[in-house]
Amino acid sequence: MSRLDVTESFQGIKFPGHMHTEESLNFATDFKFEETDTLIVTYPKSGTTWMQEILTLVLSKGDPTIAQSQPNWARAPWLEQYYCPEVLKASSGPRIITTHLPYHLLAPALQHCKAKVIYVARNVKDVCVSYYHFHKMANFLPDPGTFPEFLKNFLKGDVHYGSWFDHVNGWTGHAKNFQNFFYITYEEMFQDLRGSLQKVSHFLQCTLCKEELNLAEKHCSFNSMKENAMVNYTLIPKEIIDHSKGKFMRKGKVGDWKNMFTEEQSGLVDEVYFSQMADSSLLFQWDQ
Ligand code: A3P
Hints:
Layout: E1 8-10, E2 13-15, H1 22-29, E3 38-42, H2 48-59, H3 65-69, H4 72-75, H5 84-90, E4 96-99, H6 103-110, E5 116-121, H7 124-137, H8 147-156, H9 164-173, E6 181-185, H10 186-191, H11 193-203, H12 210-219, H13 222-227, H14 263-276
Parallel strand pairs: 3-4, 3-5, 5-6
Antiparallel strand pairs: 1-2
Helix pairs in contact: 2-12, 11-12
Bound molecules: adenosine-3'-5'-diphosphate.
């Protein structure tokens, strides 16, 4: 099957051509955030879908009805994708919005913004492996080639949505500009889902009682989300995401990079990491 129209460039960053247009990207960069909005920000493959599910379950106080009846892109649309204005027009109540945009593209729209911003980061090696596998099944992304080829492009930032390093540094380095900024890692959510749900619910000022928390924890688990067609992307036509080539809910683990990286590749990423993250105080967990 031939790949879809995979590349559009906007201000130096590549985006999948079938989901993003100049108009949709301008809509995102000019967006008027409201105080009641919650914005999920991630580099791809860092736990975006997981956080969408967490927010849905926290705001519904553990009731899975919405999570099991509305696709994630309809309840937490990507700001930069072409269908977002329509979804937002139809929504009522506080909005959950998702974005993969790098900080510099959204900085003007977010100036003086009181919206809540949640940034989820994941260790770069697991992101790279997850992204590589996703490229193989997502026909809206270019053919990744071999893993060494993909890794080379990934480290250069020559992939869709740009460099992981720029994304993480851009957003976390400007956290102080936001009145309501919450940072969490995929690894923390993995180690302590219940504690993470509690932290998110505290940030949203939507405290859950024990039974509500039990329900939210159950429905945000990997096994539960894997079976939920509203988040596992099986609703998407095969021409766009081909589940015969892999699964969106693939492994859901910390440290899977060890099954893919050679020692040399791991050392190379460490070198780039230490040079590009030299000014960052973030700490990542690389292993379970
Ligand atoms: P893997 O490919 O390593 O399995 P995103 O939503 O940002 O595209 O991220 C997708 C990654 O998050 C995939 O990683 C997916 O399996 C993982 N994921 C999604 N929900 C999860 C959950 N409940 N628990 C653990 N990992 C989850």
